[in-house]
Structures are given as structure tokens and as C-alpha cells.
Amino acid sequence: MVRVKVPATTANIGPGFDCLGIAIDIYNTIEVEECDEGLYIEVVGQGCHEVPRDHTNLVYSSMQKVFDEVCYRPKGIRMTLTNDIPVARGLGSSAACIVGGMVAANALSGFRLGLHELMKLAVQVDGHPDNVVPALVGGMAAACLEGDEVLYVKMDPPPGIKLAVMIPDFELSTAKARQVLPDAIPLKDVVFNISRTAILVASFLTGRSEMLAVATQDRLHQPYRKALIPHWDDIFFYAGKWGAKGVFLSGAGPTIVAILDEGNVTFIDKMKEAVSAFQERWEIRMVDFCRSGVEVSHI
Ligand code: HSE
User: Fold this and answer.
1) d(Cα 81, Cα 47) in Å, to the nearest integer?
2) 141 strand-pairing partners
3) Cis peptide before 52 (omega within 30 of 0)
């Protein structure tokens, strides 16, 4: 039996659209073994009523990509998916299924693919690298596509900061959140984003956090997506008021993330109070960085 523990991710981090992401300590766990025949999928936790139990299951179809790649044919598969990552909330649940399934299949078939091959396959399925790469390697990752290849650099998050996630009770599909984006962006907005992405990465690499409020600003996707998220302005306003050093949409949303000083112990309660009047329910909690990425073991 193989066990894979794969982290949630928060992508974009404001200006780093489709290229930056951070792994956080919310996990999906996959326990999988070969059996004599058939496909048996048990799902526990987030999305357990909606997740398909047949060949269309994303973990299973991702496993198949690896089996095809290495020409391995299991007789049957039995697996249990224990999901803590909220579904369709901008926390990389799909990337976690893809990465988890591929890493599990690679373990079952004798570890024939290396990290880069798995990364390449996972990015092909997910479409962009900003969730997949940190889910695989942990920490904060910058990634780009060069032809078919995925290039990435892993960074350690700066010391002295932590993250709060603000997760609403409604789903938002990535497809819908990408549909609202324009085909062309004015040059001044591109420069706005490039400069902030540069400052953001430089801040992480040098362990500095005093410019994060500006470095997490964005003009490529957030201005277009905010209409999909009720109380956007209120949440950004209150998060700033209660000490957030930077606030950004997590991936395609609808979750919003605040970067906090480690010593900020009042943020969660203050934000819970602020959102209590909203019509939707917002779950607000601290998360830690996942520094090591996906883990796989034989049990
Ligand atoms: N970078 C992607 C987006 C993340 O913002 O659409 C979602 O997978």
C-alpha cells in the first residue's frame, strides 16, 4: 500500500499570475494499492458527496497518465481519498489530485519517473505550473514553461510571517474565473505587475517583508475577478485594518489570503467579527507553510 500526502497551494500571490505559488499545511491523503481487478474509490472529507468514484476521478485519471507513460498495467486499483483541501476555492485541490495521483502511480510502478518528468506531466494536465510546482516541491515556487519543459526555483518563505486564509462557503471554478479575464492588458498594467512580481520575489529571497503590501498588488486578474466575490472590498479593507502586510486572491479564488506578522495574534478574531455580518459564511484560519511538498511512503 502506498500513502501520498499532498499539500494545498495558494497561487499567483497577487501579481505572479500563473507563475508563483506557495504550499500550505492543508493536505489531501491518498492511500492506494493494487488489487486483483476493478476500481474501488472511497472518498472521505471535502467534496465526498460530489467526487466521482469511477474512471473519471481526477486522482485515478492522473494515475493512468503515469501508468501509460511507463507502460505499467495494474490489474485493479483500490484507494481511499481523505480530503482536507476545500474544493473549487482557489486552494489547489485539482492540482493536489493530479500531483497526488501521479506520485502514487509512480510509487506503485517502481519510481520510474523523476521529479521533472512528473512535474511536466502534471502541468500538462493542470494547464499551468503555479499550483502543481509548489504542491510537488513545497515552499514558495516560481515557475515558467519553456516549450514543453517546466523550469522552477524553490524559495523559503521569509522568517517572521504567517498566512491567514479566508475561505467563503461558495465555490468558484477556475474556468469561470479565467473567462472574465481580458485578452489584452495595457502595457502600463503589465509593467505594474512585472515590477511588483520582481519586488515580491526579491523580498522573499532576502527575507524582507516591509514592501509586501505593494508587492502583492495586481492588475492582471484581481480587478476582473473581484466582481465574482461578494464583500471583496470589505475583506481587503478589514484585513489591512487588522494588520495584514499583504492581501491577495488565492489562485482563481474565491479564497482570499492575508500575510501577517508572526506576532499578530488578534487578526483571526477581528476578521471573524468583521465577516459575521456578511450573508455568506467565511471560514478564517491560520495556516503554516508546507516546506517539503508532497510526501510518499510505502505502508
Ligand atoms: N493561476 C491560475 C489562475 C490559478 O489564477 O487562474 C488557478 O489554477
Assistant:
1) 10
2) 21, 154
3) no
Q: Which segments within 224-288 are labelled E, that is strand?
A: 246-249, 256-261, 282-287
Q: Cell 481523505 sits at which residue?
A: 82
Query: What is the CATH topology of the domain spanning 2-155+290-298?
Result: Ribosomal Protein S5; domain 2 (3.30.230)
- Per residue in 124-173, pLDDT (tens digit) is 999 999 999 999 999 999 999 999 899 999 998 888 999 999 999 999 99
CB of 94 within 6 A of ligand 1: the answer is: no
Predicted TM-score (pTM) of the model is: 0.95
Architecture of domain 161-287: 2-Layer Sandwich (3.30)
Structure-model confidence comparison of residues 159 and 236, the more confident one: 236
What is the residue with the minimal CA distance to atom 4 of ligand 1? 251
The C-alpha atoms of residue 248 and residue 88 are separated, in whole angstroms, by 17
Any idea where the domains of the chain sit in the sequence?
2-155+290-298, 161-287
For position 65, what pLDDT does the model report?
98
Secondary structure (3-state) at 56: coil
With contact defined as beta carbons under 8 Å apart, do 89 and 254 qualify?
yes
Q: Is 138 close to ligand 1, i.e. is its CB under 6 Å away?
A: no
- Starting at the earlier edge strand, list the strands of the sheet with 256-261: 246-249, 256-261, 161-168, 282-287
C-alpha cell at 128: 499551468
DSSP classification of residue 119: H
Neighbours of 263 (CB within 10 A): 9
* pLDDT at residue 105, as a whole number: 98
Is the shortest distance between the CB of 18 and ligand 1 below 6 Å?
A: yes
Residue of 9, 13, 17 to mutate, ligand 1, most atoms within 8 A of C-beta:
17
Element (H, E) at 212: helix 212-215
